[in-house]
Amino acid sequence: MDTVAALAGVPASEAELLAVAHRERIFSGAAWSVGNLDGPVRRGLLGTLSWGGPPVRPDTLWDWASVTKPVVALATMWLVERGALGLAETVAEHLPEYADGELGRVTVEQLLTHTSGLPGRQPLWRRHPERESLLAAVRALPLRTAPGTAVDYSSVGFIVLGQVAEAASGMPLDRLVAIAVTEPVGMPDTGFRPAARDRDRCAATEHCPWRGEVVQGSVHDENAVVLGGVAGHAGLFGTLDDLEGLALAVLSGGGTVTGEWLAARTLALMGRGHTDRLNLRRGLGWQGRDPHGSPFGDLSSPESYGHTGFTGTSIWLDPTLGRYAVLLTNRVHPSRDTPGMETVRRRFHNLAAAR
Predict the structure, then answer these.
(1) Which domain holds residue 229?
(2) Which runs of consecutive H residues, i.e. helices, occur in the chain?
(3) pLDDT tens, 65-74?
(4) What is the pLDDT of residues 319-348, one digit of tens each?
């Protein structure tokens, strides 16, 4: 049956929409929250960690996939605020091994806004199954466009950004993210590489032919696997509570964070459109609301922003409405070819914005 036809009807809530999607086997499990500056208004859990597996629980760990990117961007801006990094500084200034290639002249801001000129999805893992080989392949990638001239969503760009952040901070990326984001915001269950004891509370993702198993408790993204599970573009796992807390922290301008974190003006700068003269709207690590085909639906404000993840995750922030929405699913289970998530995501955000 056609996906749109299968989702036909008049759902009165996010819960009803997601229940229909679950019946259509678009994902085995989901967790969601919609709220405002006072906190959650509607939230819930649905389904199982895998088809036939145990139920989704409040402490379920979800593979956030590319929702990792804005978290790494927040850590990068933490470094900017502390004078360890500048947006106009180039990759080569922090990573001398890039100096002889085209990537060396790309700036931190261009990495954050996906205007580096680096091409989009690159399955480097297929030919480079070892970390150093993959990173060498990244350094050798030719730029598709001149830096700063077009938005081209690039996970490779955030792999490089993660390396820059490590060099600027003098610490591994996972530790930087903990110090700069998850610890001050209060996200105790969020991190890279879940411990073996936590595997059973992770939502399953794809049956991966490369690994010969259903992936559960390790990162779905293959390039991130080769990089050891810690990368700037993917690798974070976390709970609904934690992503909800991050949404509130950013939406409130840091007002929900106890103690010192990022300044409200820094958070506002990150969400602002930095590429409005180009083909797509992007902030610093955030995806702005494009005029057509936005995953954040039809009713969100032009100033809204967020990020999606390939595994079926998303975070959406609307400063005009004073509202956020978080959606966590395992839509790649058991296959990334399962259709329907794009429709579900847009409708979910329409419901979140309208009520």
Answers:
(1) 3-305+317-354
(2) 3-6, 14-23, 68-81, 91-94, 108-112, 131-140, 155-169, 173-177, 183-185, 222-226, 240-251, 264-271, 341-354
(3) 999 999 999 9
(4) 999 999 999 999 999 999 999 999 999 999
